[in-house]
C-alpha cells in the first residue's frame, strides 16, 4: 500500500493564485429548472399522497385537496454532460427499458412494462419521532406481467387495485409527463398511489447520479406508514460499479466521480453529470465543476466538485461554488483518493475503497471520508 504525505501548501497556493476574479460584476449564466409533481383530487376521489424520497413533503393521510411538492429551483452556470467511462459490471445484459404508453396502461395493457424490475429506494414513517426515513435499494420485489402489477401487498389490473381490504376502483391523473393511479374512494382503510415516470421525467431518484431518470420508474405509495417503494425497470446488474479514473479526471472528465458518496454518519454527496463552467471573465483556477445535487451555496449558486492537481497517487480537488463575490472563501479542499492509496500515516479511512475526503485531511480522515455507494 502506498503512503502519501498531504501537501496542504499546494492547495493553498492553488486557491490564492487563481481564485481572484478580474471583475466583481462577472456572473455566470443561470438556468432554472423546476420539477413539480401535483396530485389532484375531487369530492369523490382521493389522491394518494405521493411520498418523494429526497427533498419533498410527505403526508400520512388521505387528502381531498390539491397537494404539490416542488423541487428547489437551482441556479446554475452553463451546463454540459460528461462522457462515458469504462465501468466494471457484473453483467453484460442489455437494458430492456422501453417507453411508457399511458393510454395502454390506463387500459390495463402493461406489455411495455412486463419483465424485470428492481427496487432502488425505500421510504417510510414509523411515527417514532424520527420522521420520514429513506434508504437506497431495498429487498421488495415487483412482478409485472402484460396485465398485472403486483408488489406482494396489492395487485393492480385494468382500472382496479386489489389488496387485503378488497377491490378498489382507480382514477388516473396525467401531470408533468407522469401518470398517477389513485384510489377513487376516499374512505378506503388503506390508501394507495402509483406514479409512472417515463425516462427523463424526474430527478428525484438517481441511480448513478444522473440528472434525470435513465430508466422507467414506478413509485408505489401506501398510507400505511407512508411506505414507499421506488422500482426501476430492468435488472439490478445494469447498474455499473464505477471506479475512480484519475487519468480521466485530470482531463476534466468527471464521469468516474458521478454517483452517491456517503460518510459513516449517513451524510451524502450526490455528484451529478451536470457540469458548470467558471463565470466568464473570472480567474478561478478551476475551469469547471460537477454539480452536487441538492446543495446550494451563497447567492444561490450550485455547490460543485472541481479538480486540481495530482499529489502523489491521489488528486487534489475542491468543494464549493463559483462565487465571484467571495472568491477566497468559494472553495475548500477535497482529496479524491482511489482504493489502495493512503494519504499519510495518519489516514485512518478505509483505504480498500474509493473515497472523497472533505478538507483533504485537515479535519481528520475517517470522519470526513465519503465512500461510493
Summarize the topology:
Blueprint: E1 2-3, H1 8-18, E2 31-33, E3 36-39, E4 67-70, E5 74-76, E6 79-81, H2 102-106, E7 117-125, E8 132-136, E9 143-144, E10 149-150, E11 155-157, E12 160-163, E13 166-175, E14 178-183, E15 192-197, E16 217-222, E17 228-233, H3 246-250, E18 259-262, E19 268-277, E20 288-296, E21 302-311, E22 314-320, E23 331-337, E24 341-342, E25 355-358, E26 369-372
Parallel strand pairs: 1-24
Antiparallel strand pairs: 2-5, 3-4, 6-19, 7-8, 7-17, 9-10, 10-11, 11-12, 12-13, 13-14, 14-15, 15-16, 16-17, 18-19, 18-26, 19-20, 20-21, 21-22, 22-23, 23-25, 25-26
Keywords:
mainly beta; elongated; eight-stranded antiparallel barrel; eleven-stranded antiparallel β-sheet; 373 residues; 26 strands; 3 helices
What strand order characterises the main sheet? 8-7-17-16-15-14-13-12-11-10-9
Rg calculated over all Cα atoms: 23 Å
Helix and strand content put the structural class at mainly beta
**Approximately how much helix is present in the residues?**
under 10%
The proportion of residues in beta strands is 35-45%
Overall pLDDT, averaged? 76
Distance between the termini: 23 Å
Q: Tell me the number of strands.
A: 26
Q: How many H/I helical runs?
A: 3
Shape: elongated
Tell me the series of helices and strands, N- to C-terminal: EHEEEEEHEEEEEEEEEEEHEEEEEEEEE
> How can the largest sheet be summarized?
11 strands, antiparallel
Poorly predicted runs: 1-97
Amino acid at each position: 500500500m502506498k503512503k502519501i504525505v498531504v501537501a496542504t501548501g499546494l492547495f493553498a497556493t492553488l486557491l490564492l493564485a487563481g481564485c481572484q476574479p478580474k471583475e466583481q460584476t462577472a456572473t455566470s449564466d443561470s438556468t432554472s429548472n423546476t420539477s413539480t409533481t401535483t396530485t389532484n383530487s375531487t369530492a369523490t376521489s382521493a389522491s394518494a399522497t405521493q411520498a418523494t424520497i429526497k427533498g419533498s413533503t410527505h403526508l400520512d393521510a388521505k387528502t381531498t385537496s390539491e397537494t404539490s411538492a416542488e423541487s428547489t429551483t437551482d441556479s446554475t452556470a452553463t451546463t454540459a454532460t460528461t462522457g462515458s467511462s469504462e465501468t466494471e459490471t457484473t453483467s453484460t445484459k442489455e437494458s430492456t427499458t422501453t417507453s411508457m404508453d399511458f393510454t395502454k396502461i390506463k387500459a390495463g395493457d402493461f406489455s411495455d412494462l412486463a419483465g424485470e424490475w428492481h427496487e432502488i429506494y425505500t421510504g417510510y414513517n414509523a411515527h417514532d419521532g424520527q420522521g420520514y426515513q429513506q434508504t437506497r435499494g431495498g429487498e421488495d420485489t415487483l412482478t409485472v406481467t402484460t396485465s398485472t402489477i403486483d408488489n406482494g401487498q396489492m395487485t393492480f389490473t385494468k382500472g382496479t387495485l386489489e389488496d387485503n381490504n378488497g377491490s378498489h376502483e382507480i382514477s388516473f391523473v396525467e401531470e408533468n409527463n407522469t401518470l398517477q393511479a389513485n384510489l377513487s374512494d376516499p374512505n378506503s382503510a388503506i390508501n394507495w398511489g402509483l406514479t409512472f415516470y417515463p425516462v427523463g421525467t424526474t430527478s428525484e431518484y438517481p441511480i448513478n447520479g444522473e440528472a434525470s431518470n435513465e430508466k422507467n420508474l414506478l413509485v408505489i405509495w401506501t398510507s400505511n406508514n407512508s411506505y414507499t417503494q421506488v422500482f426501476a425497470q430492468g435488472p439490478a446488474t445494469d447498474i455499473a460499479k464505477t471506479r475512480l479514473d484519475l487519468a480521466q479526471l485530470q482531463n476534466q472528465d468527471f464521469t468516474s466521480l458521478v454517483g452517491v458518496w456517503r460518510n459513516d454518519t449517513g451524510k451524502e454527496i450526490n455528484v451529478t453529470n451536470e457540469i458548470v463552467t467558471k463565470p466568464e471573465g473570472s480567474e478561478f483556477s478551476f475551469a469547471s465543476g460537477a454539480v452536487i445535487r441538492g446543495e446550494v451555496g451563497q447567492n444561490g449558486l450550485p455547490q460543485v466538485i472541481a479538480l486540481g492537481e495530482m499529489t502523489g497517487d491521489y488528486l487534489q480537488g475542491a468543494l464549493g461554488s463559483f462565487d465571484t463575490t467571495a472568491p477566497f472563501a468559494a472553495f475548500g479542499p477535497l482529496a479524491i483518493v482511489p482504493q489502495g492509496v493512503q494519504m499519510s500515516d495518519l489516514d485512518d479511512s478505509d483505504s480498500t475503497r474509493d473515497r472523497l475526503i472533505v478538507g483533504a485531511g485537515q479535519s481528520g480522515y475517517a470522519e470526513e471520508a465519503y465512500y461510493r455507494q
